[in-house]
């Protein structure tokens, strides 16, 4: 750490801390400093401690390999690792510094703790671009969240923290991630496609940015909101929470396709990107895969008929009030 002057702690990490450092040239950088063993020095270790040491080192080495791959193929929406070195039993990853902090904090400090759809899409397009690049490099993130997206000095989104990333071609089975963003197949246990897990997490991130609240607390039928999502889709919850004014129909269609509980029916990331690109055109495209959003709309009634007809609460809202 001779070349880096520590000025403070930015955040805690699994095996250490992320430090704010100043380089010899006067510029700031973020250094992720991780202990290779919390049990002491290697010569005095017993078999159990030795196994723990090997596990920690393997996990840190795996994260290092992901960052090295991303360093070779850089992307403006992924935090760049500038250096890596080991000193006195600590591994150090040196990253570009993002002074505007987490996207989650930016959301939290806005009025009503939510972004307009336009602003949310501005950030979301950048995040999707970064994740798509990560997938092309050969890895899935598995811990995508607003907390793992940083904002640089120009408020450009930078995806960070690849400690849970795995090769995208492999079938995964580990229980990882944050509950609000976790795909149901991860929570359920058993094998899953890590690429489709990332799509689910991205859908949750978009919903939270626009609504200001998590869609579910637990991605299982233990959570009644998840049960409604599973049986009736995102639009049902949006109507129950009287948030229709926050979401355009095109975004609801996109969310519906990203948050399908069955991962084999869920939109792929390439389809999500294509949908976002098409939204920039004059015509809003249909959602990526087929979407079942309830019964066909009834024919419009005349103004006189509407006046005579008493206004009743929506079907989803009635169900919501009955359950909660």
TrEMBL record:
Compositional bias segments (type: Basic and acidic residues): 306-315
Superkingdom per UniProt: Eukaryota
Chain intervals with Basic residues compositional bias: 292-305
Name this polypeptide is given: Protein kinase
Organism: Achlya hypogyna
Family matches, as InterPro entries: Kinase-like_dom_sf (IPR011009), Prot_kinase_dom (IPR000719)
Keywords, in A-Z order: ATP-binding, Kinase, Nucleotide-binding, Serine/threonine-protein kinase, Transferase
GO cellular component: nucleus
Chain intervals for the UniProt region annotation (Disordered): 281-324
One Pfam family it belongs to: Pkinase
Molecular-function GO terms, alphabetical: ATP binding; protein serine/threonine kinase activity
Domain Protein kinase: 4-276
UniProt cross-references to Gene3D superfamilies, sorted A to Z: Transferase(Phosphotransferase) domain 1 (1.10.510.10)
């Amino acid at each position: 750490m001779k070349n880096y002057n520590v000025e403070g702690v930015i955040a805690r990490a699994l095996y250490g801390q992320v430090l704010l450092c100043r380089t010899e040239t006067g510029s700031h950088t973020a250094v992720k400093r991780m202990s290779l063993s919390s049990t002491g020095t290697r010569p005095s270790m017993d078999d159990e401690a030795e196994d723990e040491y090997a596990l920690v080192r393997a996990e840190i080495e795996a994260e290092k390999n992901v960052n090295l791959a991303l360093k070779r193929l850089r992307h403006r929406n992924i935090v760049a690792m500038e250096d890596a070195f080991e000193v006195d039993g600590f591994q150090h990853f040196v990253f570009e510094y993002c002074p505007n902090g987490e996207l989650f904090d930016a959301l939290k400090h806005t009025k009503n703790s939510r972004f307009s759809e336009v602003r949310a899409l501005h950030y979301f397009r950048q995040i999707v671009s970064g994740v798509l690049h990560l997938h092309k490099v050969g890895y899935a993130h598995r811990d995508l969240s607003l907390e793992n997206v940083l904002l640089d000095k120009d408020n450009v989104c930078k995806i960070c923290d690849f400690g849970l990333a795995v090769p995208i071609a492999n079938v995964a089975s580990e229980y990882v991630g944050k509950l609000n963003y976790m795909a149901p197949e991860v929570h359920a246990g058993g094998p899953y496609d890590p690429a489709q897990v990332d799509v689910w997490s991205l859908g949750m991130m978009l919903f939270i940015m626009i609504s200001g609240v998590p869609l579910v607390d637990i991605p299982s039928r233990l959570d009644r909101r998840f049960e409604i999502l599973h049986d009736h889709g995102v639009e049902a919850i949006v109507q129950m929470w009287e948030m229709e004014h926050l979401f355009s129909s095109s975004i609801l269609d996109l969310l519906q396709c990203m948050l399908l509980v069955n991962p084999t029916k869920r939109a792929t990331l390439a389809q999500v990107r294509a949908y976002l690109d098409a939204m920039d055109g004059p015509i809003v495209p249909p959602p990526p895969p087929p979407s079942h959003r309830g019964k066909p709309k009834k024919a419009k009634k005349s103004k006189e008929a509407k006046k005579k007809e008493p206004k009743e609460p929506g079907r989803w809202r009635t169900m919501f009030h009955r359950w909660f």
